[in-house]
Structure formats: C-alpha cells, structure tokens
TrEMBL record:
InterPro entries: AB_hydrolase_fold, Fungal_lipase-type, Sec_MonoDiacylglyc_Lipase. Residues 28-189 form the Fungal lipase-type domain. GO terms for biological process: lipid metabolic process. This is Fungal lipase-type domain-containing protein. Pfam families: Lipase_3.
Amino acid sequence: EVAWFGDKHPNDAIHSICVKRSTKTVTLVFRGTVNTHNWKNNMKFGMLKQYNPITNEIYKGRSDHVNIHCGFGLYLLRRWNSGLHSNNLQEILEKCNTIGREMAPDGKFRLSIAGHSLGGALATIASFYASADKRFTAVAPVRVFTFAAPRVGDQSFLDAYRHLEQTGRLFHARFMNCRDIVPLIPWCSFQGRKDGRWYKHVGLQVKLH
C-alpha cells in the first residue's frame, strides 16, 4: 500500500513510502537516474564532510565527520530553506516515523529502505542516518536492499556504517550484476589521489550473474 509519494521536487530525491500493515513495516523506496539533472549530480565526484550521528560511540576508525559523495549528498543532506533546521532526509524520515506510528502507536514498526542505481546510493545514505535513530530500531534493524548502487562514501563512512551493522541496527544487502559498471564507480574524489579519500562500498555484496 502506497502511503506517500514524494515528488515535490521533480529533479531531486523522488521517493515513495509504502506500508505493509500485517507486519507493521514501512518501506522507503528511492527512484534511480532519469534525467540530465540527475546525471550532472552523479558526476560530482568530490566529497562533502557530513555529520556523523554516532560520533559519541567507540569503534575502530571513529571520526567526528564522514565524507559522502557531493552529488548524492545534495539530494538528501542540503537544507531546502535556510530558515529551516531540517534537511530533506530529516523530513523524509520524519514522514516515515509518522506513518509508522499511525500503524503502531507504540512505535514498534519495522523500516526497510530500497533503491536502484542513484536510488541505491540515496538508500545507502538514508539507511546510515535512519539506523542511528532509535525510532527506527525499536523492533528490528533497518533493512536495506540496493540494486546496482554506486559507492557513496570513504573509509570514515565505511567504518561508521560497519559499526551500525555490527551492533545489530542495520542490515544491508547490496545486489550487483558483474557486467554492470555502475557498482564499480566512483573510485575516488578529485583530491583522492592526494589525501587518500577513496570511495568504499558498504553492505553485504550479492553478485548476480
């Protein structure tokens, strides 16, 4: 059942929120690349420093910030209005929580996130922040299923993401076709060769032949 369709900004993070009432599951799905604007953002290989929601936890490689693909980050982590305190992702997750609590007033609902290609990159970023939010892990880990998703962050992102997986708050199955180039890119930011900011994959890789 489709509960919400986010197409307010046609060139940005088009998404839908679906519900399965029998299992009290909310599923957030992101659309892939469809237009020139999307392709332009996809090619912004630089990295942006972003807030690390688990910076107060102890884990190997812990950092105050994580570096995320500039183009992908623009869709979710920028603020639509400088007068607002929330970014697009926070608004999307708030909508997921509202819909989830309509089904389960006690907050005990499950969250799944999915996406293909660009949508897979956005699903990866969304899952990182969602799984660090206790509202979405009360019953089960946030489950993520991506298809042909590119890399989205560097080692600092991988370390934080892996910690969320190892502590049972996140499960990510990353499906890829061996003949598809998209999951193999990007390799590094424009400054990557100098400062070591190479892109890293996250999640459990599942190869489809």
